[in-house]
Amino acid sequence: MVRKRKYPFVGVLLALIVATALLPGGSVAAQMSEDDPLSGFAPALLPDYVSDMDAHADAPRYTIDITLALDHEGATISGEQQVIYTNRSPHALDRIVFRLYPNLVSYGGAMVVARVLVDGAPAAPDLDETGTVLSVPLASPLAPGERVTLALNYEIRVRAGVARLYKQFSYLDNVLALPNAYPVLSVYEAGDGWWVVADHTQGDAVYSESAFFEVTLRAPEDLIVVASGTEVSVRTGEDGLLVHEYVAPLMRDFAIMAAPHYVTQTGTVDGVAITLYYDPARPDAEAIAAGGLRAAQAAVGLFNSLFGAYPFAELDIVQTPTSAGGIEYPGLIVIGDDAWDENADRFIFVLVHEIAHQWWYSLVGNDQTLDPWMDEALAQFATALFIGALEGGPSYSAAINSYEAQYARYLQLAEGLDQPIGLPVSDYTGTAYFSIVYQKGPLFFDALAETYGGAAVLDALQDYFAAYRYDIAEPVDMLLSFEQSLDADLHAIFEEWVGDFPVG
Q1: Based on the number of CB atoms within 10 Å of its own CB, is 130 exposed (0-12), middle (13-18) or buried (19 or more)?
Q2: For residue 122, what is the enclosing H or E element?
Q3: Once rounded to an integer, what is the mean pLDDT over residues 77-87?
Q4: Domain end point (choices 209, 233, 250)
Q5: pLDDT of residue 26
Q6: I need a surface site. Which of 237, 445, 454, 487 has the fewest CB within 10 A?
Q7: pLDDT beyond 80 at 6
Q8: Three-state SS string across 359-417, please?
Q9: Are residues 315 and 309 in contact, defined by beta-carbon separation less than 8 angstroms?
Q10: Same domain, 343 and 423
Q11: DSSP, residue by residue, 294-316
């Protein structure tokens, strides 16, 4: 996610993007096999990364059936969901916890789970006072390595015209934004138990494990639907609704966007199909989208080479009314109308930042409420690297100097309160979250590059990405990974910038 700021130093970016060489794309045919239950997910992965599923075959597996209905007052999502959950922790579990994100005040929806079954037997779940933490008790403890199948029926109501934090979960201007529109498995942390943070006043709300998703969505035929993963079929159902079927392997969560007016532009890079969905009625829509497509191709190609390969077959970029500038989801990013309309520099910066989140948040996960710097500061640093790669070293320096100047301006105007970059979102007030995490945060990685060399830090990021791809990393994991890669004791510099956190 990126908040609104001006970045005047990328004035010649689009012209340079036009000249970027791009590689041809590819596609994968669906292959279903009773002997290989994961084979049906293959269309959503590039051929070289289909085998990644085998190493994570015990990740949660969702099968979701959704019907979407619209009326003049809003939208209703009726869903049935089955989840196969394997206990990968070292502890026996007496319950499984789901998060009902639409019930967050910041989302502004209304979600009700009507029935829960555990291995086919009715269960009596507990719902906390926030309405967002659903605990499902198990008849007997689930031992490490054992699995359980849970089934849930639910309904979500989204009121038209209601705009809460970032407009991220909404039905505005005929655009449906539906992230996390299903009961999302929480994360069980050894030593801490199930993650149940429900305070969401800013930043990102979701903390989840990579999982397999099979999603069937029934929606009105006039809606252009975009979702995480890959659409493997679409047909007209007996009720006249279009039936969309998606597979999304090893994705951290699942998002749906839809509108009747979307048109598209599509290209490829390194085999990845990139599609922009946008409103053709907005000023200069076609030209802006064309520039965005070139930038997206350049960003994916660059980050593939700098960090490690994006393994999914496609990446979708969707225009929505969000007020956050942009928001990241696995295999899908949204960019707000204001960023599309404002100017090319602003649009490209937001787009590249959100694309960087496909590496830092989506593929390498972290607790976005406790350690937001691990993905946001890295996405900002990656954006500076992108600018430098296309415009040269002085432009990278200008990007870093811009971050530093905005951070310094914050210190002058906001009581001069400096804070480490590694605090929870809730510890930052006012403009501190953006100024510390987004502006001071990338300076930490630049400081590492100044000390140990830019090439060495990029090697360290590649090692870190390879070690935690599809998994969850904590600050100590980054510290130890970087120490091994750089062959240096980094405790002092991490403590100086990130703050104090448990080690070992």
Answers
A1: middle
A2: strand 121-122
A3: 98
A4: 209
A5: 31
A6: 487
A7: no
A8: CECCCEECCCCCCCHHHHHHHHHHHHHHHHHHHCHHHHHHHHHHHHHHHHHHHHHCCCC
A9: no
A10: no
A11: HHHHHHHHHHHHHT----BSEEE
- Each residue of 456-475: b (16+ CB within 10 Å) or e? bbbebbebbbebbbbebbbb
Residue 9's pLDDT is 36
d(CA 499, CA 445): 14
In the prediction, which pLDDT does 12 show?
37
Residues 330 and 386 in one domain: no
Q: How far is the C-alpha of 11 from the C-alpha of 240, rounded, in Å?
A: 48
Mean pLDDT (whole number) for 319-328: 96
Structural domain range at position 433: 373-497
What is the structure's pLDDT at 34? 59
Question: Are 411 and 326 in a shared domain?
Answer: no
Number of domains the chain contains: 3
Q: Is the distance from CB of 479 to CB of 371 less than 8 angstroms? A: no
Q: What is the CATH number of the domain that holds 322?
A: 1.10.390.10
The C-alpha R_g of the chain, in whole angstroms, comes to 22
| 3-state secondary structure at position 93 | strand
Q: Report the DSSP beta bridge partners of residue 316.
A: 275, 332
- Tens digits of residue pLDDT in 10-33: 333 433 333 333 332 332 233 345
Q: Verify that 337 and 387 share a domain, yes or no.
A: no
| pTM of the entire predicted model | 0.93
Q: What is the DSSP letter of 472?
A: B
Mean per-residue pLDDT of the chain? 92
